[in-house]
């Protein structure tokens, strides 16, 4: 009986992710424990990045903060999504993650609570992105995978961990979206 209930709940979440029209149809919990609906970013581009504190790419926090500082007044949102999915390279609590990010990198951009970003248990937004782009392009392969969402909530870009946040290919896409606002 419990197995059937778990399966039914999983199907509801999966179908809701597939029925969504945009990223604005989803919601997170902020790292501070408050609701963080994606619709609050409607009209603004969002650079969505799954993060981890003990990864070889953790240094990218510095460039993400720089992007936030450079473009936030123009409308860009950088949204960090801490995850344990790749080698369990993240702290176990939101308080530890928040303290590390603020003290080590001066992070001021919004972050979510600890989330799963791949597989059947992935946050619904990540499952939706995989559905939009296909599993190969739409599923993070490691920490610091980046997705760019348009002001309308469409997925318009995806970059692997190896592409630096300040790379021309990312900033050009961000600037093009900001110019349309």
What series of H and E elements makes up the topology?
Answer: HEEEHEHHHEEH
> Spans with pLDDT under 50 lasting ≥5 residues?
1-16
DSSP E strands, number? 6
**Relevant CATH superfamily:** Glutaredoxin
Shape annotation: globular
**In what range is the share of β-strand residues?**
5-15%
Going by CATH, the architecture would be 3-Layer(aba) Sandwich
Q: Strands across the major sheet, in which order?
A: 4-3-5-6
Tell me about the largest β-sheet. Answer: 4 strands, mixed
Give Rg in angstroms: 16 Å
Number of domains: 1
| CATH level-1 class | Alpha Beta
- By CATH, the topology is Glutaredoxin
**Approximate helicity band:** 25-40%
């Amino acid at each position: 009986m419990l197995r059937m209930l778990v399966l039914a709940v999983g199907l509801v979440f999966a179908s809701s992710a597939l029925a969504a029209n945009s990223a604005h149809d989803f919601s997170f919990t902020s790292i501070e424990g408050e609701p963080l609906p994606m619709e609050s970013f409607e009209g603004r581009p969002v650079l969505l990045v799954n993060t981890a504190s003990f990864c070889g790419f953790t240094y990218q926090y510095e460039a993400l903060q720089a992007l936030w500082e450079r473009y936030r007044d123009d409308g860009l949102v950088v949204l960090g999504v801490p995850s344990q999915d790749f080698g369990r390279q993240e702290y176990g609590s939101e308080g530890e993650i928040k303290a590390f990010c603020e003290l080590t990198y001066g992070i001021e951009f919004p972050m979510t609570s600890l989330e799963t970003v791949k597989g059947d248990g992935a946050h619904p937004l990540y499952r939706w992105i995989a559905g939009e782009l296909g599993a190969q392009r739409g599923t993070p392969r490691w920490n610091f995978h980046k997705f760019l969402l348009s002001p309308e909530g469409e997925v318009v870009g995806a970059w692997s961990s190896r592409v630096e946040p300040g790379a021309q290919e990312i900033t050009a896409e961000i600037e093009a979206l900001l110019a349309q606002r």
